[in-house]
Write a structure and sequence with these properties.
CATH superfamily of chain B: MetI-like
CATH topology of chain B: MetI-like fold
Number of domains of chain B: 1
Distance between the termini of chain A: 45 Å
Strand content of chain A: 25-35%
Number of domains of chain A: 2
Radius of gyration of chain A: 24 Å
Largest sheet of chain A: 6 strands, mixed
CATH superfamily of the largest domain in chain A: P-loop containing nucleotide triphosphate hydrolases
Largest sheet of chain B: 2 strands, antiparallel
CATH class of the largest domain in chain A: Alpha Beta
CATH class of chain B: Mainly Alpha
Number of strands of chain A: 21
Helix content of chain B: 55-70%
Shape of chain A: elongated
Strand order of the largest sheet of chain A: 6-7-8-3-9-10
Order of helices and strands of chain B: HHEEHEEHHHHHHHHHH
Oligomer: heterodimer
Shape of chain B: globular
Distance between the termini of chain B: 51 Å
Structural class of chain B: mainly alpha
Structural class of chain A: alpha+beta
Number of helices of chain A: 8
CATH architecture of the largest domain in chain A: 3-Layer(aba) Sandwich
Number of strands of chain B: 4
Radius of gyration of chain B: 26 Å
């Protein structure tokens, strides 16, 4: 907390990164009651100044993990360090961590101004300094006209902003965000996604964001951790997690549907339910199990098959026109295959059409079941 | 015609009431009649009596004076005596004390019930409410039995030197306070329980997250949420407690009399209706004053929001 955040990026225009905000989780376990396991051995490093997202379905443990970071929940086992300091048992009011809650949890008996000033008041910041910082953050988040309103006079988007301002004004080392956009409509959500990401980059603060929406996670994050069953399945930048998921769960959660079990393997040729597919390279001994992933958008439909591509014959069973793109549900050898084509003004295939399906060997990804 | 056509031609032209208004009047009529006959008229009568003169047989008669009020303030035929004033002050003190103690008992109790498992919750609430299903008089007699000389409670008090040997804990001011607490506890527990049950715990977590210690989180995030329940309970307890008759009558003895007993005695034995009416009027004014103050406090503490009592 030595560097005060300001509304402007500093002179060089570079991000400010605070070393105090690196997070390390080691072997975290959390059980509720006797049987309900929320976290089952989580090891994770979150870098200082990173926009890090915990992604997973409800009940995967992502919110529990966030609450442990905030100090609202204590792990049964394992340690948590923030900025090199062990804070595993530190109560929430003694951590330099603030949270934007899913329900926003704004104090209904206080005005917007007093909500934002709350944390500074608790920290004992002098009145003049407090006013200055509240004003600064209000300008930054564009809340100027709302300061004297009561919380119940605000719209969802305004509440979200107040919740963000209330947490940011404290200048924490780490800001936690628990699905803060899930209650908003799509348009506002897209807008705030961009705003949040910009804010984080400007302040150089570590953001830990929780969501179950993989698109939101990809748009905003520097890195994503996909959780399931209280275990981290994969950590990596959005592109890696999307294009090279390590297992079927991650692949499905990222929105992929074309997953086919690996049958017999002969060098670079693999037999699947779709038929025989040629891969870029022969599978190594330890890779000859699991699944193959063919992303919807890499499938080409056309009369010509480019050199070296896998070619399959299919029939269009369903067509979903989505404006910028068109989705086809194909049947290949009695197996369903989904393909997405960008709408570039080409002639669209009709339901019942026989089409030639081309798949580049490079685009076929092997992953664990 | 340039004037817009009224949906109620009769109303527009003859100036009489629209059918909707007429319907409304008919539907509230029974309630209005009830209130006028059984509340407004008796209250007016009471106010009138309070300003009349006490006749030789205790009946109110003309002329209109402030005699009753000066008697209430202690000025009688034999000069000034503080008896009535003491009774007034005692009523006030007993009410404040009992209400305060009821809050102290009910607040943690209501919280404890609200965090219990569902099947226990109903049972605990029942345990709070069941005693009030018994007649007040019977409950007061129960306390008389528990507090009279020779009972374990009385012996314990003797052991600690709180009362002299062979004495009981009743009749006394202490017994009256105890009786009031016992009597009114459910009226505080229930509204507080309702407030605790819908407590938004996320606000507590938000306060803790924003550097509030557990104690400050309670004061700034829990207490404001329970305030409407607390104020409702305070009204439900303090107003009937101020006019309580049975408890001080049975547990208090002559020296622990409250305003209710004074009023009752003037209408019955003492036969000074104007004095009794003046006492009742004071009670009424105190009630209104209390309600008004409570609303103001509620409004202030909740930051301008109306607190419904």
């Amino acid at each position: 907390m030595t560097v005060p955040p300001s509304a402007e990026p500093d002179a060089a225009g570079t991000q400010r990164v605070r070393d105090a905000s690196a997070i390390a989780l080691r072997n975290l376990h959390k059980r509720f009651g006797r049987d309900a396991v929320a976290l089952d051995g989580v090891d994770l490093d979150i870098h200082a100044g990173e926009f890090f997202t915990l992604l997973g379905p409800s009940g995967c443990g992502k919110t529990t993990l966030l609450r442990i970071l905030a100090g609202l929940e204590a792990p049964n086992e394992g340690t948590l360090t923030i900025g090199g300091k062990d804070v595993t048992t530190t109560p929430p009011h003694l951590r330099s961590v603030n949270t934007v809650f899913q329900s926003y949890a704004l104090f209904p008996h206080l005005s917007v101004h007093d909500n934002i000033a709350f944390g500074l008041r608790m920290k004992g910041v002098a009145a003049a300094e407090r006013e200055r910082r509240v004003q600064e953050i209000a300008d930054f988040i564009k809340l100027g006209a709302l300061m004297e309103r009561r919380v119940n006079q605000l719209s969802g988007g305004q509440r979200q902003r107040v919740a963000l301002a209330r947490a940011l004004v404290c200048e924490p080392d780490v800001l936690l965000l628990d699905e803060p956009l899930s209650a908003l409509d799509a348009g506002l959500r897209n807008q705030l996604q961009v705003e949040l990401q910009r804010t984080q980059k400007r302040l150089g603060m570590t953001f830990v964001f929780v969501t179950h929406d993989q698109e939101e996670a990809m748009v905003m994050s520097d890195r994503i951790a996909v959780l399931d069953g209280g275990v981290i399945q994969q950590v990596g930048p959005p592109q890696t997690v999307y294009e090279h998921p390590v297992n079927a769960f991650v692949a499905r959660f990222m929105g992929h549907v074309n997953l086919f079990e690996i049958g017999s393997v002969n060098g670079d040729r693999v037999t699947t339910a779709l038929g025989q597919l040629r891969l870029e390279q022969p599978l190594a001994e330890h890779e000859r199990h699991g699944m193959l992933l063919i992303r919807q958008e890499v499938i080409e439909l056309g009369p010509e098959v480019p050199e070296g591509y896998n070619a399959l014959q299919g029939v269009v069973r369903e067509r979903l026109y989505r404006g910028s793109r068109v989705e086809y549900r194909l049947e290949v050898d009695g197996v369903v295959l989904l393909a997405t084509a960008s709408n570039l003004g080409q002639r669209l295939h009709a339901v019942g059409d026989r089409v030639t399906v081309s798949i580049c060997p490079e685009d076929i990804v092997r992953l664990d079941a | 015609m340039s004037k817009p056509e009224s949906p109620y031609p009769l109303a527009a032209h003859s100036g009489s009431l629209s059918p909707d208004t007429r319907h409304l009047l008919w539907s509230v009529a029974p309630g209005v009649i009830w209130i006028v006959v059984f509340l407004v008229l008796p209250s007016l009568y009471l106010i009138g009596v309070a300003f009349m003169t006490n006749g030789p047989y205790g009946q109110p008669q003309m002329p209109l004076t402030l005699d009753a009020f000066s008697q209430l303030a202690g000025f009688g035929f034999l000069g000034w005596s503080p008896g009535n004033l003491y009774t007034l002050l005692r009523s006030l003190w007993q009410t404040l004390l009992a209400t305060g103690l009821v809050i102290l008992v009910a607040y943690p109790l209501a919280y404890r019930i609200s965090i219990s498992r569902e099947k226990w919750r109903a049972l605990m609430l029942l345990a709070v409410v069941v005693p009030s299903w018994t007649n007040q008089v019977i409950r007061a007699f129960g306390w008389m039995n528990l507090l009279s000389p020779g009972t374990p409670l009385a012996e314990l008090a003797q052991f600690f030197g709180l009362i002299g040997p062979n004495m009981g804990l009743y009749p006394s001011n202490f017994a009256v306070t105890l009786g009031l607490i016992y009597n009114f506890l459910p009226f505080m527990v229930l509204p507080l329980y309702a407030a605790f049950e819908k407590l938004d715990y996320a606000l507590v977590e938000a306060a803790r997250d924003l550097y509030a210690s557990p104690l400050r989180a309670f004061w700034l995030a829990v207490f404001p949420q329970t305030l409407p329940g607390l104020l409702a309970g305070t009204v439900l307890v303090s107003i009937p407690a101020f006019g309580m008759y049975v408890v001080p009558e049975l547990l208090g003895g002559g020296r622990a009399m409250m305003l209710g007993n004074l009023v009752a005695s003037q209408f019955a034995g003492g036969s000074n209706w104007p004095l009794g009416a003046a006492g009742a009027l004071i009670m009424l004014l105190a009630t209104f004053g209390g309600l008004f103050a409570m609303r103001r406090i509620g409004k202030r503490l909740s930051g301008g929001e109306e607190v419904v009592i």
